[in-house]
């Protein structure tokens, strides 16, 4: 972006806080590398959106995308819950892992709630605060003003503010900067390409760091909300946390390059590469899901009169690929012995795999499906 000045460091006594320049203004794009990547990113998003239209029963699979996003976004912040653990109930999680598990569940709840709220409330400080409140409910950050912008100074990295990697603006600047960001989100007169706009929004949000905790997760969640609200994607099927997590040091370095060197182009290129790679990976996942569906449905034909009940079970497994005999009985409206018979047949077909090794309370994975999201 031409003539971009990221902001200024302001002396706050024993430390310097960074006050970013407002972003609700006219922008001029000149870097041809950014323009080329923008074109490629637009094409890949268009392909992904097409897949979402033509993939049968796509809503069945979105839950798994959300769970993957929740585990990856939380992992960036140090949470260690994986997809398999996130799918289990709390009582099945080891005591020492429950705090991490609850943070991931909050992320899933926050994202689902925010997508639904978009039907009546646009992206705004109000919606962002609602999301933040859900994220921190009952977990480690519950005492750090859930749902409220900070009223004290925070910092990123370092044991104290004195050796921090980055110090965001003073809390007194947060309302003004967030108002500017909100105006930019809804400013149709600037004519900034949407993917560059959300890249700017994400950078600015992370730089303002308006909350005492949870800023990274909220900032990454806003990316998906923006793509859905603006109609770029009809369904919430693109999540960048996996890309950011795999390139974590580059992610943080590029954000800092903007603040310290006003090098916005490098951040934009990184963000667009993330869009391109993630869209391609999502398309491949949907392609693999459709192939898996076709293969599994062919296998179910071997079950004769039990095929219809088996299909009911498999459809449930696409939503949540973990099941037990009680749930099978409920889905098929049959007895427990009949459910165990069906489970055994699905095991023989290689669709289900028992994971507990117990005689009672057995649970079964749709392992091949889980692998598509965890590989």
Structure, described:
- This protein starts with 6 loop residues before the first strand and ends with a helix.
- It is globular and about 75 Å long.
- It is mostly helical and 375 residues long.
- The longest helix has 37 residues, at 264-300.
- The protein has helices at 32-54, 58-76, 83-86, 98-117, 125-135, 174-185, 194-208, 215-229, 241-246, 248-261, 264-300, 307-319, 325-332, 336-348, 367-374, and strands at 7-11, 16-20, 322-323, 353-354, 364-365.
- 58% of the residues lie in helices and 4% in strands.
- The strands form two sheets. Strands 3-5-4 form a three-stranded antiparallel β-sheet.
- It has 15 helices and five strands.
- The protein folds into two domains: 7-285, Fic-like fold, CATH 1.10.3290.10; 293-374, Orthogonal Bundle (Arc Repressor Mutant, subunit A), CATH 1.10.10.
- The model has no long low-confidence stretch (mean pLDDT 93).
- A hairpin with a 4-residue loop joins strand 1 (7-11) and strand 2.
Assembly status: single chain
Q: What is the CATH C level class of the largest domain, in words?
A: Mainly Alpha
Low-confidence stretches: none
Strand content: under 5%
CATH topology of the largest domain: Fic-like fold
Supply the number of helical segments: 15
Separation of the first and last Cα atoms: 36 Å
Our count of domains comes out at 2
């Amino acid at each position: 972006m031409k003539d971009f000045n990221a902001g200024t460091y302001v002396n706050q006594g024993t430390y310097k806080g960074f006050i970013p320049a407002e972003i609700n203004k006219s922008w001029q794009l000149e870097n041809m590398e950014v323009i080329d990547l923008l074109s490629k990113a637009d094409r890949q998003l268009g392909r992904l959106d097409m897949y979402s239209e033509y993939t049968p029963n796509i809503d069945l699979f979105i839950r798994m995308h959300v769970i993957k996003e929740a585990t990856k976004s939380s992992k960036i912040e140090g949470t260690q819950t994986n997809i398999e653990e996130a799918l289990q109930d709390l009582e099945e999680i080891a005591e020492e892992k429950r705090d991490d598990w609850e943070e991931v569940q909050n992320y899933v709840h926050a994202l689902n709630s925010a997508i639904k709220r978009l039907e009546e409330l646009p992206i705004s400080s109000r919606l962002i605060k609602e999301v933040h409140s859900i994220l921190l409910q009952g977990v480690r950050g519950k005492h750090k003003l859930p749902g409220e912008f900070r009223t004290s100074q925070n910092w990123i990295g370092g044991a104290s503010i004195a050796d921090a990697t980055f110090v965001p603006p003073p809390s007194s600047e947060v309302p003004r900067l967030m108002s500017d960001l909100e105006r930019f989100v809804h400013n149709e007169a600037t004519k900034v390409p949407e993917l560059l706009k959300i890249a700017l929004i994400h950078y600015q949000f992370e730089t303002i760091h308006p909350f005492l905790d949870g800023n990274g997760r909220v900032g990454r969640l806003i990316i998906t909300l923006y793509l859905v609200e603006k109609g770029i994607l009809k369904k919430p099927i693109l999540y960048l946390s996996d890309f950011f997590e795999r390139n974590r040091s580059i992610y943080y370095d590029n954000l800092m390059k903007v603040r310290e060197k006003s090098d916005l182009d490098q951040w934009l290129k990184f963000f667009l590469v993330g869009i391109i790679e993630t869209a391609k990976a999502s398309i491949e996942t949907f392609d693999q899901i459709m192939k898996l569906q076709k293969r599994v449905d062919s296998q179910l034909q071997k079950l004769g009169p039990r095929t219809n009940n088996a299909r009911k079970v498999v459809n449930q497994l696409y939503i949540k690929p973990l099941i037990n005999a009680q749930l099978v009985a409920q889905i098929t409206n049959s007895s427990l012995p009949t459910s165990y018979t069906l489970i055994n047949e699905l095991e023989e077909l290689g669709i289900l795999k028992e994971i507990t090794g117990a005689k009672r309370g057995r649970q079964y994975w749709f392992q091949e499906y889980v692998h598509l999201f965890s590989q």
